[in-house]
Amino acid sequence: MPRPPRLSPDDVATALDALPSWSGDADGIRRTVQLPTFREAVDAIVAIADVAEEMDHHPDVDLRWRTLHLSLVSHSAGGVTELDLELARRIDALLPD
How far apart (Å, rounded) are the C-alpha atoms in residues 31 and 43? Predict the structure, then answer.
């Protein structure tokens, strides 16, 4: 199945308007989440991993004590695609502000 194409900078900017917890540009989008405890941060990674596996699209995750730094980019497309935006929406559903 073909992967979606890289989105234009304007398309990514428009999409980020609907994803206020995320920042970035057509080269990648990012979100930082602080959880109450280290264990809850680890549990959040497991929940994100389940969604990522289901989508066959995986974020870069950096855990620093109880803070998650999440980065999304479709390396095969050289930038942000609709897959990244959908994964961001699903992460937001798991980790609302």
Answer: 17
Q: Report the distance separating Cα 69 and Cα 58, nearest Å.
A: 14
Using alpha carbons only, give the angle 23, 28, 84 rounded to the nearest 5 degrees: 95
pLDDT tens for the chain, 97 residues long, are: 567 899 999 999 999 999 999 999 999 999 999 999 999 999 999 999 999 999 999 999 999 999 999 999 998 888 999 999 999 999 999 998 7
Residue with tokens 């280290």: 38
**Cβ-contact 79, 6 below 8 angstroms:** yes
The structure's pTM equals 0.93
Among 2.60.40.1240, 3.30.1360.20, 3.30.200.20, 3.40.1110.10, what is the CATH number of 9-94? 3.30.1360.20
